[in-house]
Write a structure and sequence with these properties.
Blueprint: H1 17-24, E1 30-32, H2 38-42, E2 51-57, H3 61-74, E3 78-83, H4 97-106, E4 113-119, H5 123-127
Parallel strand pairs: 1-2
Antiparallel strand pairs: 2-4, 3-4
Helix pairs in contact: 3-4
Length: 129
């Protein structure tokens, strides 16, 4: 969305991920793709899930770094990335958040976007009620 001008405000209803979990239970996988507000969505999550992904863009890398920080705090401990529309994992192994942050930092601007995949390898902790 580089170069886009959004000059109108709209009100939308919101709900936290925690509230959705309370209503529907713990998902096996959650995908977060909210056009630059991924870190705000993760602020409404207070526990790890078995797995999730969030979209990132090279024009807003700081959002991705905040997401990685939040997810690490919650107990996520394995990270990989798929660039663009290619859903194959770049590293084919789970790596620490700091290593993934370094990779995101080094991506060329033209890489544009992708999805970061995250897991908690201690599945018992992430699925407990």
């Amino acid at each position: 969305w580089e170069g886009q001008v959004w000059d109108a405000d709209i009100e939308v209803p919101v709900v936290t991920v925690d509230a959705l979990i309370e209503t529907y239970g713990v998902p096996t996988f959650a995908k977060i793709d909210v056009e630059g507000f991924e870190d705000e969505v993760l602020a409404g999550l207070s526990r790890p899930l078995p797995a999730l992904s969030f979209e990132f863009t090279t024009i807003a890398r700081a959002v991705a770094y905040r997401c990685l920080d939040r997810l690490t705090t919650l107990g996520f401990d394995g990270f990989d990335v798929a660039l663009g529309d290619d859903k194959s994992m770049t590293f084919q192994r789970w790596m620490p958040a700091a290593d993934l942050a370094t990779h995101l930092h080094e991506l060329p601007h033209a890489a544009n976007a992708g999805d970061v995949y995250c897991v908690t390898r201690d599945r018992e902790a992430s699925t407990a009620p």
